[in-house]
Design brief:
Blueprint: E1 3-6, H1 15-23, E2 28-30, E3 34-35, H2 36-41, H3 46-51, E4 60-66, H4 70-80, E5 88-93, H5 98-101, H6 113-126, E6 131-135, H7 146-155, E7 160-164, H8 178-187, E8 192-195, H9 201-211, E9 215-218, H10 227-236, H11 246-261, H12 266-281, H13 287-294, H14 300-315
Parallel strand pairs: 1-2, 1-9, 2-4, 3-4, 4-5, 5-6, 6-7, 7-8, 8-9
């Protein structure tokens, strides 16, 4: 059965967001990326413990680990693989963020295959759980080495991989190259999942059918749209699906808000939800004005009231038409 997964996005895919995606049919998700170095030397640090939290309503969850020291990565994986909350260890070799990649971690490891191989071999040996990995196509257009990296991963005992169809230099610009992802699928025998530019069920279906992949991994397409998982599931079954109404979008945003408020201090939750609300209402008439108003609000009750009024008005008006996907300014894993 082909799977539909949620990609790890730093600062986005915490457990409240993942829970909503699982409820809509997500098959598997990753934690936000966890620093192996941070875990080994500060295993009970607040930031690390927060990233490791899992809600009992979540489904199959992989723990994504990043770092560049093979010994530290193996030590972290050995300890974390004993945690019953997780179904596997996922190695981040795809994050394009400057401070990660340019320090030799994340997608920076695609420039040092010997280090990447040592990490994969060490983690596979140390982990009690299956080990997967996420790659980009390479560092830049002149150094596309994802097929070689994929074969290396398979030789190291990695159980499956995800490929994002861009280079590190591209970040999130341009279009994902799914032909390259398809070449990786042909080059190895282990499962391959494709990632990049999936914003509709039709796109997911075409990618799966055209390239024979074992599944797709949704990143930016899920932001403000956890229904995308249910829509893709319906498309795979040959069924029609109904797009969420403006009121349903607002109600989902408010549920997300309540989950976050129940977990984090109010000040932090209010600040973090501003971006999520922007994504939920993106494309609805009047959304830009609504975002501006909400960004000035500091109390949840103000936001609740404003959003419900917005939903009532939006229900009475047609949507403003399809818009480009709401982008991310900083790199994500």
């Amino acid at each position: 059965m082909r799977e539909v997964r949620l990609a790890p996005l730093a600062g986005i895919t915490d457990w409240p967001f993942r829970l909503l995606c699982f409820e809509q049919g997500c098959d598997c998700a990753c934690t936000e990326m966890v620093s192996a170095l941070g875990y080994v030397y500060a295993p009970r640090g607040h930031a690390t413990l927060t990233l490791l939290e899992k809600n009992e309503g979540e489904g199959r969850l992989l723990l994504q680990l990043f770092g560049k020291d093979p010994d530290v990565m193996a030590r972290a994986a050995e300890a974390l693989s004993q945690d019953a909350r997780f179904a596997g260890i996922d190695l981040n070799m795809g994050c394009p963020a400057h401070k990660v990649a340019c320090s030799g971690e994340g997608s920076g490891l695609m420039r040092t295959p010997e280090v990447a191989g040592a990490i994969m071999r060490g983690v596979v040996k140390a982990s009690r759980l299956p080990v997967s990995v996420k790659f980009r196509l390479g560092w830049d257009a002149e150094h596309i080495n994802v097929r070689d990296m994929a074969r290396l991963a398979e030789d190291c005992g990695v159980s499956e991989m995800t490929v994002h169809g861009r280079t590190r230099v591209q970040m999130y610009s341009g279009q994902a190259d799914w032909d390259r992802i398809g070449e990786v699928k042909q080059a190895v025998k282990i499962p391959v999942f494709g990632n990049g530019d999936i914003f509709t069920a039709e796109q997911a279906l075409h990618r799966l059918n055209d390239y024979g992949l074992d599944g797709v991994v949704i990143g930016r397409g899920a932001m403000g749209n956890p229904w995308l998982f249910a829509q893709i599931r319906s498309a795979l079954r040959g069924e029609t699906f109904t797009l969420p109404t403006p009121r349903e979008k607002v109600e989902m945003a408010l549920r997300h808000y309540r989950l976050l408020l129940g977990w984090k201090p109010e000040r932090i939750a209010v600040g973090e939800m501003r971006k999520h609300i922007g994504w939920y209402i993106h494309g609805l008439r009047g959304a830009a004005r609504m975002r501006d108003e909400i960004n000035k609000m500091n109390r949840p009750e103000e936001v609740y009231s404003a959003l419900m009024s917005f939903a009532e008005q939006a229900e009475a008006l047609p949507e403003s038409g399809p818009l480009p996907p709401y982008g991310i300014e900083r790199g994500k894993g």
